[in-house]
Every structure is written in C-alpha cells, then in structure tokens.
Backbone:
C-alpha cells in the first residue's frame, strides 16, 4: 500500500504542475464557443501549454501505475493533493497565500491522512465482466450529462465549475477503465488489450476530459475549475471502485473515520476554491479574468 500512496502522490504533483501551466495557456488562447476543437489546435502551438501537457502525460502514466497497484478508493482521493500543489505554484508566481488557503490545504492533508490510515486490505480481482460495469458507468454518465449540459447552457463561473465537474467525472472513469488494463494484460497480453473496449473507452474519456478541462480553464480562475475537478474525481472514483471492482470502502469499525476523512478532504478542496478567488493579487486578477465567449 505504501508504494501505491507514493506513486499516487507523484501523479498528483504532476497533475498540479500541469494544471497551472495549462490554465495559463488556455486563458491566453483565443475565446471560442464551448468545446470548440480549435482550442486544442491553438494550445498545441504554445510551448508553456506543451510543457503542461508533458507533465500531464507523466501524471497519467504514474496514475495508471497507481490504480493497478492499489484500489481506486485509495488512489483517487490522493489526487486532491494536486490542488494544493497548484496553489503553491501560483503563490510562487506572485499570488498571496492567505491564512484561509493554509487552513484549507491543512484540511486536505489531515483529511487524507485520516482516510488512508484505516484503509482496509483488498485482494486484486481478475477481469471485470461488462455487466458489472453497467451500474457504475450509468451513474458516472448521468453526472457527466447533467454537468456538461449545465456548462454548455451557462457562462462565466457556472461554465467554469460545470466543465470542471465534467472533466472530473471523466478523469475518474478513465482511471477505473485504466485499472482494468492490468487484468486484461495479465490474462491475454497486448493483443487482448488492443482489442478490449476498456482501452478505447479510457482513451475516449481521457481525450474528452482534456478538452473539457481546457474549456473550464478558459472560462475562469483556476481555483473554481480545478477544485471542482478534484472534488468530483475522488467521489466518482471511490464509487466506481466499490460498485465495479468490489473494493471494500471500510470495515464496520473504521467506516466513521473514513467517511470523516474523505469529507474533511472535500471540504478543504471546496474552501481552496474560495481562498484562491479572494487572495488574488491585482496582476493575477487581470491575468485570470473570465473570457467573453464568441
């Protein structure tokens, strides 16, 4: 379990770095209608955004390794550390780190520690049949549809938060599908993986999640989009781990502490949203102003 936690933390750091670099690039791109593919084409020509894409690729690789080493219900909550990393990096670029930011960051760390210290043991399962995926994918699909529709119909901060939530759902779903790769590889090798629906569904979720995250970044401040992403991701990830893979969330004696730890972590993530919006320097405000869509 220690290796799973360490690899997950490294993935979170990479995602935090990637978010800051990609957010800056997305804000400086030409405003477009929501989910316009031209956004990705333009971003691909920006060196700073490409550096963020490289960090994201490293994070995805580490993330896939982590979910195949341990349960989703452990890995996905750890990724919330990426928000703390992003906040600290923005502080280095000139943003004041307020007391509320420090408190919220502390809540994330303490909540995660409480959540992880009582993680129940879990034996790796074999390939999961398609029927077992149906309830989890239907739940994720319903949340995704509501959030994406609200983002398309809304604007400004509403679009920022809703697209961030949509990207979070897809990140968690892609991670769950990626977790299945290990079992498919073990049972049938690369040929079986290349022909598996889990591979192509995960790649599709990853591609759409990337587009949604960049649209969220372009719609407003990093705090709103990334915090929503980081709050939705572990909630969906834990749910998919329990429903699809049969991961035990907790024992009867540890359930209260695990629920409390996860709740404290999510509260810390939400508070960081407010902290980032209220602790901006004048330069950050001008750099992160919401863009008018065309």
Residues:
């Amino acid at each position: 379990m220690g290796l799973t936690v360490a690899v997950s933390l490294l993935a979170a750091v990479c995602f935090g770095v990637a978010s800051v670099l990609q957010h800056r690039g997305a804000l400086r791109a030409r405003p477009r209608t929501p989910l316009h593919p031209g956004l990705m084409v333009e971003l691909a020509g920006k060196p700073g955004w490409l550096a963020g894409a490289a960090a994201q690729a490293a994070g995805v690789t580490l993330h896939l390794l982590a979910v195949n080493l341990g349960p989703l219900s452990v890995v996905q909550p750890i990724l919330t550390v990426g928000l703390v990393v992003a906040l600290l990096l923005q502080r280095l670029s000139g943003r004041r780190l307020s007391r509320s930011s420090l408190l919220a960051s502390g809540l994330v760390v303490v909540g995660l520690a409480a959540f992880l210290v009582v993680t129940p043991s879990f034996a790796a399962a074999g390939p999961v049949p398609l029927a077992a995926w149906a309830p989890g994918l239907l739940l994720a699909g319903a949340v995704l549809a509501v959030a994406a529709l609200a983002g398309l119909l809304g604007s400004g901060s509403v679009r920022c938060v809703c697209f961030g939530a949509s990207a979070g759902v897809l990140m968690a779903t892609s991670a769950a599908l990626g977790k299945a790769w290990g079992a498919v590889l073990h049972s049938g090798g690369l040929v079986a993986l290349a022909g598996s629906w889990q591979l192509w569904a995960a790649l599709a979720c990853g591609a759409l999640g990337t587009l949604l995250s960049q649209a969220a970044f372009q719609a407003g401040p990093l705090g709103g989009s990334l915090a929503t992403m980081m709050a939705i991701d572990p909630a969906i990830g834990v749910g998919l781990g329990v429903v699809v893979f049969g991961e035990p969330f907790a024992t009867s004696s540890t359930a209260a502490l695990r629920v409390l730890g996860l709740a404290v972590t999510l509260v810390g993530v939400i508070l960081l949203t407010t902290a980032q919006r209220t602790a901006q320097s004048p330069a950050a405000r001008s750099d992160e102003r919401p863009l008018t869509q065309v």
